[in-house]
Amino acid sequence: MRKTQITIDVELDENHVPENITWNAQDGGIEKEETKATMISVWDDKAMEALRIDLWTKEMPVDQMKMFIHQILISLGNTYQRATGEEDVAQWMEEIAEEFAVKSAIK
């Protein structure tokens, strides 16, 4: 069995707030790529719940965070459609993403 790694390095300030975030993906040729935010979700099948890590640096602008969330919402709809084949629910999720974009004033 082949293994690969994706890692995220977080530098914290004295109050444990992220100052710098970099990520690495061996197979993608990404090494110490800087980012201002990351959201990671994993499924705990024993507890039947999603576990999350949401991090962003002090330098992450609010307008970019809104765009980040919007794009994640769109991606969730796409992932849902691929995983379930339920086109109608995926379309509804996209509509929610677009409503978010309007309400958050990014569109």
From TrEMBL:
<dbReference type="InterPro" id="IPR019854">
    <property type="entry name" value="Motility-assoc_prot_GldC"/>
</dbReference>
<protein>
    <submittedName>
        <fullName>Gliding motility protein GldC</fullName>
    </submittedName>
</protein>
<dbReference type="Pfam" id="PF19937">
    <property type="entry name" value="GldC-like"/>
</dbReference>
